[in-house]
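pasting for the record
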Amino acid sequence: MSQTTHNTKRFDTLLVANRGEIACRVMRTARAMGLRTVAVYSDADANARHVREADEAIRLGPAAARESYLKVEAVVEAARRSGAGAIHPGYGFLSENGAFVEALDQAGIVFVGPPASAIAAMGDKSAAKSRMANAGVPLVPGYHGDDQDDALLKAEADKIGYPVLLKASAGGGGKGMRVVESAAGFQAALDGCRRESQAAFGDQRMLIEKYLTQPRHVEVQVFCDSLGNGVYLFERDCSVQRRHQKVLEEAPAPGMSEGLRREMGEAAVRAAKEIGYVGAGTVEFLLDSSQGQDGAFYFMEMNTRLQVEHPVTEMITGQDLVEWQLRVAMGERLPLAQDELTITGHSFEARLYAEDPEQDFLPATGTLTRFAMDLEGAGLDPQRVRLDSGVETGDAVSMHYDPMLAKLIVFGDDRAQALATLNRALAALDVQGVVTNRAFLQRLATHPAFRDADLDTRFIEKHEETLFAPRRYSIEEYAGAALVGLNQLSRECESDSPWDRHDGFRVNAPHTIRIALCDPAHAQDDDDSEAVVVVEGTRADNAGPWHLTIGGETLTARLDPLAGDAVAMTLDGHRRRLQARRDGNVVVMVDPRGETRLFWRRIDAIDHGHHEAESTLTAPMHGTVVALLVEAGARVEKGMPLMVMEAMKMEHTMSAPADGHVASFHFQAGDTVGQGDVLLEFAPDE
């Protein structure tokens, strides 16, 4: 398609009114196009990666988003101060704020996005559905009328087709809502819903909608220019969600026929043109997968901005969607026509969050002590793996904003190859210092149902038992954890005491070490959940060979360090490469099959405590002091609890290493401590 322009709005400086990975991603394309880039930041982001990478940056205000990134007048003023001719909003914050677009129009600043009228048209969900119906875009069949006669409602349900969903018109929270499977059960369900609705809302009015038993979330990327041209860049499947938050996305949607792809794409373009759309947008549909490959699809909503998952579309089309956005904002025609767009291969995106899936996905904060991905060591092609991130090693993860750290995007010739690459890339991703959902992403990506593309929006809910099943550890995992912890201990040990030697030295006897391992969640349990590994060797170097005895079975083992945190572990001649480290007292091992975490402690070290007691106790990991259990100067006996720390939402009790007394504490309850910090001074008995 020709690159001739109409109503050209050229600019040489772009302000990105956002933060994190999307700000970095937009600036990357802007720089490639020769544009000067301007970042904005809050006090919490003064040293953030997007600020460091911009040509210049302007402070907006305090950490709270409402006082910084959401403050329209502050963003407009930043554009004036920097001479920015255009603003890219990213996603979130002000990206779908019509008042912000109008303020930019008044200031003569180009908004890289749709006109305010298009944002308003899709912002009113009821009005939007009416306009979509006018444009011939399929809607979920339903009845929303004022006539509430029983016979009429029954007739409407029959017309829609069962199962249907009865919903209280004034409802919410699931009250007055029931799925009706057949005509025979309609009246009883209607009566029950009315009673619930009246009790909860004082209103008996009902809505009826088609109930989709296996809905897939399939969205279409559309693009329109200011000259009336519109295209679709195919579809993405975003069905794997939790609490309506997308977790894994892919393009193209698996099992999509060419006919259905064209039908959905053309419907999406009609939707965009109906509201006079300009720029990048996403039309989201529910696809009824219960009907097979060519199931019915229904309009859900339109996102009038660039989507988080846009990279998978870029991977399969070979197009830079941010470049398209900037060219359209300058008044240019769309770079390509519909018949010039093609699909090549398959792509996945996994969203990496600072959150703890084992604690109901609670957001996590902290400092990233390591953030890296060893592509070469994992044998991955850098042209097929992309990491869009807004953080680097050393960055702080704040509590003020969305906890997404990065997006891992991969490409393959087909879905199976792309999925295999995703698993290897997740294993190669090394994130330390902050709890993340990386292991959960691996469990999703390796789940048999996901591998078979058996997808719908209730995927995580449906497979909760297997996704969150208690871990069963193999002998190989116990052996590996024992060696990794031992290797780390040897590097940390600086004491000359024979009782602290890591190699299990004994006079006139083989070097022997006894290690206990268990699930970190049960580290404080007084039960039989621990596995004991006896490590015996005839030499004192870190690699081995060692003889490991676990539950009556003996293995010969070696552990050879590779680059970074990678190691080569050999058990009975079986050599495996993996990422491995000890995080405090927890050993973490990661390979393409998943992640293993085991609490590690030496049993024999306790046995030697009476020979030589440390005069200090140090923090085994980063955490917070929860409580001091004795007073300074108190007389204590060996093993008596002295203080409690919390780390990674687990409590750890520090105990007296010998009989003696606590000379002083260095921290109080509520204080934050780092790994290796001296917690207290301890005076052992002579």
